[in-house]
Design a protein that fits this description.
The chain is α+β, with helices and mostly antiparallel strands. Helix content is 38%, strand content 25%. The structure holds adenosine monophosphate. Adenosine monophosphate binds at residues 28-29, 213-214, 241-243, 279, 282-283, 286, 343-345, 347-348, 370.
């Protein structure tokens, strides 16, 4: 995967000439956007009409794949070969989706309940990743047609509650569609960015993003602090949305026309026609106070207030979710500084009104609620492209990053929860005389011993000029750019020799792994401390052994035979104890050696000084 070039001198990401697109891969509809003349802009279909691409994939008997409007038309005529709502299946096992299998018109299949679901279309099986990739391919083509050049880089949004499996599945779908997914962004974060919220990194604020689509409702509470978007709480209902409004309104229409609702429900085509009629009446009522509808040949007039009464319990359910999210975040409605509306169903004036009452303020609704997430994804893409230089710190490091030092100890250079971009450096030296190479092994994790952490990579700093142990000054710098790419650079400062590697630290690690690593570090804290103390004692002893040997060699003439023999016996004793696991014994052997050799060292030093002074006149 190509890395984004970084301009190290400026500490900024270099501009890439290629347009990075922002993609909202939605449950019902998907969109693709990019920054055009400095403003985010959703790309329309070839006819220049619609920005929404229905997230529907149809397989024709000839094996052709249709995506979008053409596929949606097949939902009624050929439901078994027409796949919708695939987002609900991303990263899920059959066990996860068994409950709502009946909701889907196609066949979800798996013989092993714990493995990821597959979807059966005729005699072939598809993973949700492959099907999502079809939708992404269609979006990629749309962008390429508009831009007139290939598009290979994208930012894709996912719900804030998506776990790592679901995020990884989305990333994989992108890769399958030929897209390098530079970042997976939370949908509420993107919605905020579309309104420019969070772009002022000096401001801290808490916002709510209310997202009511066709089939799902999500509320997210975000804290934005110095350009970082922290998800404080999410809540919602995965089966609540505009479709439920349509059903409620369909019942109302039938009632007003004097029909029995059961009679209609048994006839699929009639039920479908009624549902479509209800949706168009609903949309009309978003603009007008009253509207006429045709119900099975009968004309009825519906008042907006009647519709509002019908959907009141549904809207109340969304507000209950908001209250739960606030409670989880430990906040009150008055603590929310801004409210952003997302999703087509927030066009319903009654929804807007109830949300405004609940939070005690007018929500942000200036942008098209269907487009707002894609527009924000385009803003994020533009930031990643390096086009908005003063921005943007979007992430924190999930786990500490460091290197292995002598004895397998983890030396943390960037602690967990540090804001990125970040640069941190520390100086090290060699432990052996004349050491020419230094292996730098980079780890991620919270444990004291690297063996319990996750290795990210290693490299060798070679060509260190021969110097006595302790003299080289080796600076190890960790640099994480805004895209989460870690560069580790090692430089011997006296000679200037230098090596570096690039690592993507956050990838491939699941949230479960991360949680486990953090829990382990707490559970093993005492054990780790003991292990660290033992290793430190061993390291000190090793250093002392080397120093002792050197002392004997260099001062052979100044020491008596007994002094040399006794020193050697102390060194031997220490050497024998080192492999044991009793740090106190190592410490006491170190102490004995030190006590015996300290007077000898003083005497040798005096002699050396005397010798150095001989023949030199003191002015
Ligand atoms: P989304 O999933 O965000 O695309 O939202 C789609 C939902 O928004 C569907 O239930 C639509 O019926 C609904 N919707 C779209 N436009 C309007 C409108 N003008 N008034 C009310 N609902 C709408």
């Amino acid at each position: 995967m190509p890395l984004i070039p970084i301009n190290m001198r400026e500490g900024a990401i270099a501009r890439t000439e290629e347009t990075i697109v922002g993609i909202d891969l939605g449950t019902t509809n998907s969109l693709v956007a990019y920054i055009k003349d400095g403003k985010p802009h959703c790309i329309r279909d070839a006819a220049g009409k619609h920005t929404l691409v229905p997230s529907v994939v149809h397989f024709t008997p000839e094996g052709e794949v249709l995506v979008g409007d053409a596929a949606r038309e097949k939902l009624i005529s050929d439901p078994a070969n027409t796949i919708y709502s695939v987002k609900r299946l991303m990263g899920k096992s059959y066990r996860d989706v068994a409950d709502f299998q009946s909701f889907l018109g196609y066949q979800v299949f798996d013989d092993d309940t714990d493995s990821l679901v597959k979807i059966r279309v005729r005699d072939r099986f598809f993973t949700p990743i492959e099907l999502s990739a079809e939708i992404l391919r269609a979006l990629k083509r749309r962008a390429e047609t508009e831009l007139g050049r290939p598009v290979s880089k994208a930012v894709i949004t996912v719900p804030a509650y998506f776990n790592d499996n679901q995020r990884q599945a989305t990333r994989d779908a992108g890769r399958l569609a030929g897209l390098d997914v530079l970042r997976i962004v939370n949908e509420p974060t993107a919605a905020a960015l579309a309104y420019g919220i969070g772009l002022d990194s000096t401001h801290t604020e808490t916002i709510a993003v209310y997202d009511l689509g066709g089939g799902t409702f999500d509320i997210s509470i975000l804290k934005i602090h110095e350009g970082m978007f922290e998800v404080l709480a999410t809540n919602g209902d995965t089966f609540l949305g505009g479709d439920d409004f349509d059903r409620a309104l369909a019942d109302l229409l039938l009632q007003q026309a004097g029909f029995n609702s059961d009679a209609v429900a048994s006839d699929k085509a009639t039920a479908q026609a009624l549902r479509l009629q209800a949706e168009s009446v609903k949309k009309a009522l978003s603009k007008a106070d009253t509207c006429e509808g045709n119900v099975l040949g009968k004309t009825v007039r519906i008042q907006r207030t009647d519709f509002e009464r019908a959907i009141e319990p549904l809207v109340q359910r969304t507000l209950d979710c908001c209250a739960n999210a606030l409670r989880d975040a430990g906040l009150q409605p008055k603590d929310i500084e801004k409210v952003v509306l997302v999703g087509g169903s927030t066009r319903v004036p009654f929804v807007k009104q109830r949300v405004a009452e609940f939070f005690g303020q007018q929500p942000f609704d200036g942008l098209d609620p269907d487009e707002v997430v894609a527009l924000g994804a385009a803003v994020q893409a533009d930031i990643l492209a390096g086009n908005q230089r003063d921005l943007l710190l979007l992430d924190v490091t999930p786990l500490s990053l460091g290197i292995e030092t002598v004895g397998g100890l983890m030396d943390v250079i960037i602690p967990r929860n540090s804001k990125v971009p970040i640069r941190a450096a520390r100086q090290y030296t060699t432990s052996v005389d004349g050491q020419k190479n230094l292996k730098i092994a980079v780890y991620q994790g919270e444990r004291d011993l690297v063996q319990h952490n996750r290795k990210l990579g290693e490299f060798i700093l070679s060509g260190i000029p021969p110097m006595p142990a302790g003299l080289p000054k080796i600076e190890i710098a960790f640099i994480i750019n805004a895209d989460g790419i870690l560069t580790v650079r090692a430089k011997e400062l006296r000679s200037g020799i230098e090596q570096q590697i690039d690592i993507r630290p956050a990838y491939g690690i699941t949230e479960e792994d991360m949680a486990r690593m953090l829990m382990d570090s707490i559970a093993h804290a005492a054990e780790d401390m003991r292990a660290r103390a033992l290793l430190e004692a061993r390291n000190e002893a090793q250093t002392l052994l080397l120093a002792g040997e050197k002392f004997l060699q260099q001062n052979d003439a100044l020491l008596s035979e007994t002094e040399k023999a006794t020193t050697r016996s102390f060194l031997r004793a220490l050497q024998e104890i080192i492999p044991g696991d009793d740090k106190d014994r190592i410490h006491s052997a170190i102490q004995q050696l030190n006590e015996y050799t300290a007077p000898l060292a003083r005497r040798v030093m005096d002699a050396t000084i005397r010798e150095a002074m001989q023949g030199k006149k003191i002015p």
